[in-house]
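Risk register update: the risk of archive-format incompatibility is retired. Evidence:
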Amino acid sequence: MDTSTTPLDKQTYDGKSAFPDIDSPASSAESTVRVAVTIALVLAPVAGVVAAAVLLWERAFSITDLVLAVIFYLVTGLGIAIGFHRGLTHRSFTMRGPFKLVLISAGSMAFEGSVTDWVATHRRHHAFTDRPGDPHSPYRYGTSLVGQIKGLFYAHVGWLLVNDPTSAARYAPDLVADRMVSRVSRAFPVLCVVSLALPFALGWAITGSLFGGVTAFIWAGLARVALLQHVTWSVNSLCHVFGNRPYETRAFDRATNFWPLAFVSFGESWHNGHHSAPSCARHGRGRWQFDLAAETIRGCEALHWVSDVRWSAEGSRSSVVQVRSG
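Archived output:
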């Protein structure tokens, strides 16, 4: 049975118990390879953080590394927040062709999966938020203390290491049919290489030394990827357990606003605001809720790079989720 296509209604889940056991897809060579690749994508950046810590201890860090790390973090992070999430997943606005290509390519360089897989998984998350069928809910093991601890780990990174694929054909048929998106999705491995090769090349070119290239590769490459990955995964985990919930959401949906992550997540951690109005381009709906992604979209709108932006939360309660029946 495909868990990604099995809706369970209110009568089968009470909001407190562990999710009912649902058969996982049968293991196969393909699924084994998928999990192995995912583990590599998770562990390689962590190795970069370890290497960065060792180098920092030896003072192998420069202003060049810092500037490049910030630039690549902004480019790839906004590619995820604006391109993958608010643009393609929820259709909060329409992107012009060239800008769309740039955004989804930048998001693909974040090492968070191909664009079609990312969008399909996130649409599934909205379809079954915090109830059976959600691919990464921290309430998978119930609401007890032990269950919450296990659930937080699962929602943060554990879900990446199990054989529970989400069907792009079912949850993102519009993207599967989009020639540009499909090409970028297939190019994901190449874009990951580019994501690490560019910092190395720029570091070498700017400093004029191979060592400068290596430190840029570690800080602006691996360490940057690791930080962005864990910030994104923290929205999946922390932003469903800690924080406040000023806005109404659907039954069992426990998405929260968690302000400590607001800056580094580009406003994605105003998660309760987002789940209350998924297709709204602004997630930080409060007066002092900084939302860099929304402000960037506003600038892009002024430059006519995007259009049809949904700024109002009114009429935006339901997520823009395209699910193919059958």
